[in-house]
Structures are given as C-alpha cells and as structure tokens.
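ping. complex inputs:
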Amino acid sequence: MKRTDLKGTLTLVLHALKVEWPRYAIWFFGMFALMVIATYANGQFSGEEMRELVILSVGEPGMRMLVSPIRPEGIEDISRFVFFRFSFVISILVAIMSVQIVNRLTRLEEDTKRAEMVATSGAGRYAQLFSALIVGVLVNLAIAFALTLGLVVNGVEVSGSIVAGLSYGALGIVFAGVAALTAQLSGNASASSGLSAIVFLAVFVVNALSNVTGNVHEDALGFESSFLAWFSPMGWVQEVYPFDDRNLWIFFLFAGLFVLLSFIAFFLVDKRDVGRGILPDKRGRGRAPGWMKKPLGLAYRLHRGAFFGWLVPIAFVGAAFGAATGDLGETFEDHEFFGEAFTEAAREMPFILIAVATMMVAFYARLALLRMRKEETDGPLDNVLSTPLSRTKWMASHVLLAVLGSFTLVMTMAFFQGLVVAETSSDLGEQLLGGVIQYGALFMLAGLVVMLFGLIPKQASAVSLAVLLYAILAGSFFGPILDLPEFMKNLSPYTHAKFLPENASALRVLTMYGLGIALGAVGFIAFRKRNMVF
Amino acid sequence: MNAIEIRNLTKYYGEFQALKGIDLDIKQGEVLGLIGPNGAGKTTTVRILLGLLKKSGGSVKVFGKDAWEDSVEIHERLAYVPDDVRLWPKLTGGEVIDFLASLRGGINEEKRAYYIERFEFDPNKQCRSYSKGNRQKLGLIAAFAADTDLIVFDEPTGGLDPLMSKVFQECVAELKEEGKTILMSSHILADVEKLCDRVAIISHGEIVETGTLDAMRHMKRNLITVRTKKPLSDLSDVEGVHNVEENGEALSFQADNEKIDDIIRHLSAHGIQSLEIAPPTLEDLFMRHYEEGYHKSEAVRDEKN
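pong. complex structure:
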C-alpha cells in the first residue's frame, strides 16, 4: 500500500456527510424515537404483566426467534425487558441502515460513474471505500448515542445504557463491513444490497436457531441462547448482557470481524476494475431467446435475479420457523398449567410468523416495483416506449411480475413452514390460507407503491420506504409491542390482516385486495398522463 | 405530405420555459438537421415528438397523428436513437437488438446481420461492458434494422470515432436513397452539413432559422483575424466584411465566403503581418442571430401571418 492510496479520504467523508446528512438525521431521530417510545410504553407494564409476557414468549420456541435472552432476576426491570422484546427490531434496522449507507457511498457511486470522476480527480485508490467505512462507523456511533439517550431519558442506568447502545452500534459497524465486501463482489448496487440482505438473513436465522435451541429457565422465566449464538453477530449482541454481566470483551469480536471484512474488501479493490465486480462479465448469447422478446419476458429476465435470490432463503426461513414451532405439541404438555390462553397463543404462532415473513417480503415487493423507476432513470425506458409498446402494457408486465413474485415468496414461506408444522398440528391448507390473508396487506402496499410511481416518481423511492416502515412498525406484530394508539395501528394494512384464518373476515380480506387494485389503478392512469423524468 | 408538423410548440419545466413556440415541418423523405447549442431545446423537442414528454401548448403531429395521444400507432413507423444509449447492463447487445426489434413487430434478419457487420459490433457482450461508442452503435443498429419510415437521432455521432461516424453517414445516405424520413439533432455543424437536405437552427427554445444550407450560405462566414503594417481604417466599407472588432493591434471580422478573394486582396494591399482564418462556430451563428437575424426572422414571421 502506498501513502497516496488514502489521499482525499477526509474530503470524501465531509462530502458524504454534506450530501447524505438528511438520511443520517432521519435514522438518528428515528432510532431515538423508537427507543424512547419502546422504553416508555413497555415501562407502563407492571412487574406481573412483564412476567406473563416473558412466559408467553419464552414458552414457545417459535416466539423465541423474535425475542432476546433474558434472565429470571431481570424480568421485572424495564432496561432488560425492553431489549428482550426489541433487540430483534433494532438489530434489523441498524443492519439495513449500515448496508444502505455503505452501498450508497461505494457501489452506487460507481454505477453512476461519479466514482471515476472522484478517482481521476486525485483521490487515492482506497479513498472511496475507506471514506464510506468511516462514515458507516461514525453514523453507527451516533445511533449508539441515540439509543443510549432514548434509554437514559426514561431513567435507565447510564453506564448500562451506553454499553447497550454501543452493542447495536457495533452490530451496525459489522454490517458496514459486510456491505463493503459485497460491494466488491457484485456488479452493481442492487446486486450488492441483495447479497447483503442474504448475509443478513443467514445471520438472523442462525441467531434465531440459537434462541430456539437455547436453555429455557424454570417456568419459562427467561432463557439463554445455545452455543450457536457465537456464530452470529446478532447473537453476540445478545451475549453482551449490558445490564448484567456486561461482557465488554465481546466488542473485540465485533471489531475483529469488522477489520477482517474491511481488509478483504480492500484486498479485492486491487483485484477488480472500477465499475465492475470481482465476478467476471460473462460472454453471453448473441441472440435473444423467444420468451425474452416479449415485454413480460424481458420483465421476467430483469426480476428473476432478485426473485431467486429471495426464494431460497425465504423457503429456508419457512422451514426454520416451522421446525421451531413444530415442537408445539410438546410445549403444550410441558406447560399445561398455563391453560387455554396459552394453547390459543401457541396455535397462533405459525400464523404470526407468516405475518412477519410477509413484512420482510414487502421490501422485495417495493424494490421489484421500483424497478420501473430504475428503468426510467437509467435510460432504457425511453428506448422501450419509443416502440409501439403502450405505457400501460409495459407497466403491467412489471407490476404483474412484482406481485406474482412477492406472492410466490409469501406462499413459499407458508408452504415450507406448513410442511414441517402440518404433521404435528396445523393443516397445510390453513397455513396457505394464512399466507393469502397476510398477502392482502402487502398487496395493498404494493398498490400504493404503484400509485406513488405514477403520481410522484421522483419521491416514490423515499416515500414508499417511509410508508413501508410505518406499515410494519404500526402493524399487527410490532404495533401492539410498541403500544401505539389505535388510530396509528389502524393506518397500517397489516393491522387488518388477522393472524388466524378463523378470525379473518372474507369481506375484510377482499377489501384489502380491492383497495390494492384501486390504488394501483390510480398509478396506471397517472403514469399514462405524465412526463418521463430522470 | 409532411411527416412531422410542429406548430407553436411550448414546454415549461416549472417556471422555466424550455420551448417558446417552435414551428417546424419535415416533409416525407426529407433529412432534416436540428442544430443548436447544449440546452437549446433539441432533446426536449425530440422527446415531445416521441410522446415521452407532454407539451405545454401548441400541436405536434407525426404522420398526421397526435404525438401524445396516438404515440403507439406513430411508433410503429418510427425508430429512435437517444443521445446516450443506456440499456440493461446484464443483457447482451444481441438480446437488446432482438427485444427492441420484436417490440417493433419483428426482426429483419438480413438487415440485422448487415448492420452488425457494418458497425463491426460484437453482440455477445453484456451491455455494461460496452463503451459509450459501442452503446451508440447498439442503438443505431437497433434503429436501422427496424426498417421504419421515420428515424429520429439525438446527437447520433457523440461517441463514435471518425471511422464509425463515416459508416454512420453512409448508412444514413442509403436510407435517404430508400426514401426514409430522418430527423437528426446535433450541435456539430459538420455532422448535418453532409447529410441534411434542410437545417433548422434552434436557440433558447426558438427556431431562429430554417432552410437549405445553400440558402444559409450567408451564415457560412469565416472569422478572420489579421494584423497589417498599414492601418485598415476603411475595412468596414469592403463588401462581404461584417462585424469588425479591434483586438489590440489586430482586427477581427467575419467574411462572406464568396467575397473572400476580394477581401484578402484588400488585406494584402495593406501588408499582412499575420493572418488567421477560422470556420464559423455555432456560437458565431447564434451571436449573429441576436445581433441582426433576430429581427429579420420576426419580420418573416409577420409576413407569414
């Protein structure tokens, strides 16, 4: 490495902060608000209620995937209780944030050729990546501070809060490293974030399994993860126990992994050309096969990479969730004394997991629909629409594939979960029906994204992300945990998709599908009437 | 019959008026060059013509049909090559050609092979690995092979090397022979000079001049900078000399091509110390339009009304 390889890093860091600060500010205040609201809302529970909630979740292996370990002596304390319920969400959010930050500053810069201008205007070979990592670390430290602050204003002990905040910051920093690496491996920004998403799913599943296979304390008053937790950075966060053991040495694990990932990423920078991935460009066929010559065929060609990238992991998530809830029968016997309420809750479990999976798939659906916007800004759309293809037909081909794709993903998850669960308790058909009900909420959101694309193309990406995050956080799963007011929960379509098929009304489900079609239709009409804008 | 008829076309981007009442006709079988500097409104005009942008006022007809309402029907008879051809990074060039051709109703295998060979294009590579010039070729091949009545080029030779620019010119000449209508926008005068029957000059959202290049001969003035031993006090009175400016010790002025012989004689009588002759740039043409031609074209418009 030469001394000049890092030249210009500081300038690039300052430039990134200058250009991207609104995003960082939104993340900062968003995470702060989440922590404050979550801590405050959960602080309203009495000690007895906290114990009940812990028992209900911990008693079910499936539910343990979505909570964090807690010990009997800490249950009635808000600092431990809030992370028991929120560790999962905060981890997801910091991971998404970090991947997005680094991806935008590395791969996206290259895709737009800005990186070339930067590189030729005197910046060192490693400066772009190094500055992106520095920004990633800085923002994550700020997030750690936001989380700490959110706890402290609720009266939680300061030093424990700092350690807790830092543990999520450290997880975010690791994902900054992951994104740095995937940016080198992939050919473009969307492939890179797709690869990061798959890494995240793996990290999540390993951690979930470590919770499922962990040791449950007596009377389901908390649990410890199994050794599997050490194979997942999300598990490391759980092992810190900021208010108990305070295992500060785990931060060396985070730091070590971050340094390792970054080191490999820097190593790969030398091995590839600016604007390319490490995986070589293939020499392709010189003729298009018959299916690809139709608009729908081309749309399939453009969507299939992301779709199959999601299909296998989501099938795996379904099977893993299924395996976890498959023990339900045994759980009932162990905890017979909890009575009917518990049986009901246990029966609901697989359906709750379908809802959670549908929330994940919403991110796929959004990106698949925004593919249209990408076609518009990247240029190909001008060429396509100057042929005798109507705007409506073009749009229909993309919307159809985004909807079919996301529907298939939800149903795949439900199917694989059902395959495992069905033999022990629930019927497979009922699982699939659960998928159809939950998909209604996603379908409505999809309609909304289509409408945004038609009406406000330039803002469609940002607004749809905000809407999606709101719908998820105010929806059936997180809404009640966050203890949001009714009207806020009711604004999320997920709130209206009941978990259990027997509780769902056909009218309500059909209404959601109908609303989705209506919103989408507005998008179609608006698109026909508007300018093509870059 | 006119292939394209544009009447009093206006376009606003918010407050900004990009087009201020464009009038333009292109006859069938005609090759028209739309020239103007960057930001003059060339691409905006072209994208409205293609139904990609909505006009703010006026009317735009292609083959007698409305460019916005009937865009799909119009596009059956039209092919377009944008100034920066950007397509799907993962698809190969060959796949893109086939796809676009199919949308236009089928592939003319013969033409496809012919143009791929003419442009020495490798259809097996992924689009992301093509250079700008190669992407430009891809757009041109897809358009040429489409065999449509009207072809619209936006800055077609931007990324092409001189050799390929020549191939492009030959291809356009062939199409002209076949009787195709061609609209070509460019900011390079030389580009349109060889190919176009007529030229329309656009500046700040207005067509400032249209006509054959012959009729515009007066525009083809050279810029002369000269230093002489004896002072050139009477230069402005010489026929064919315009816009004399003092430039330190030197004088610079514009000279009509057909009077160049007389002018040089006049100069050498004063003892030339140094002499530079530069062909007119678009800038010069536009500058002059604002000085003199602008009023003239206003007058012409009034006459028409």
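Residues 328-333 of chain A have pLDDT under 50 and may be disordered.
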